Amino acid sequence: MTIIYKIIDRDEWDAARGCGRYAGSQDDRRDGFIHFSTEDQMRETAAKHFAGQGNLVLLAIDDANLGSAMKWEASRGGALFPHLYKALPVSSVVRSWPLPLNEDGSHAFPDDLP
Q1: Residue 43, in any domain of the structure
Q2: What is the pTM of this model?
Q3: What is the pLDDT of residue 76?
């Protein structure tokens, strides 16, 4: 089992829980896959793509349940990033946390990541 992470708008997460799957953000749908990050990558992802944004949730996902639609592909600086080429089943999410903003506008990540 490898845990990967997704930063998502709280309203989108609420909608996904209601229907059992998450089809991705507008950017994900444009790119044709759902973008994820490793624990080492998620803070940079937050700073680069979600700077100053509130109303976010951090999801921890067990990639073992994602099957062959899960790919590790080179992206930023040649680093491998996890990408999912199907909707994310909500059942694959092992934990979620609110992702509030610190006073300086950066995100306050939880201390108890799996």
Answers
A1: yes
A2: 0.93
A3: 67
